[in-house]
Amino acid sequence: MNHNKIIQILLIEDNPGDIYLMTSELKQLSISNKLHVAVDGQEAMDFLEAVKNKDRHAPDVIILDLNLPRVDGREVFECIKSDPLLREVPLIIVSASDEQAEFIQKYNQGTNAFIKKTNSLKSFHLLIEEVNNFIQRNIVKDNNK
Questions:
Q1: pLDDT given for residue 7 in this prediction
Q2: Is the C or the N end of the chain the one with fewer CB within 10 Å?
Q3: For the domain that residue 124 is a member of, what is the CATH number?
Q4: How much is the pTM?
């Protein structure tokens, strides 16, 4: 088993509070991880373009908020799902809106998980726990094969 693999996580999130909490919580995980943060849709598109151009490695998992400034998260979603390399990267959508859950169901293009955000700290811990469990089941397990 390769426990030394550092899981590369791309967090696409514009809320500074959520970024801070996510960063803090991910440091507590039992898996080694490196967090890359894009604070808006344009930064995310630039990161993904660098992956497509092979200027940077693809992340092991993408956590995407759909409500983003500059470039909407739905466009980022379409960019990910329309690219042969990026569509293979596990994608977790986090959103405060139920409408976005419907968006994901409507398009059902390989989103691996949808997690609803709330304003409660307890709920945020549960969100991180779900992200951790997802990574453990789907990424760490696959890397140990």
A1: 84
A2: C
A3: 3.40.50.2300
A4: 0.80
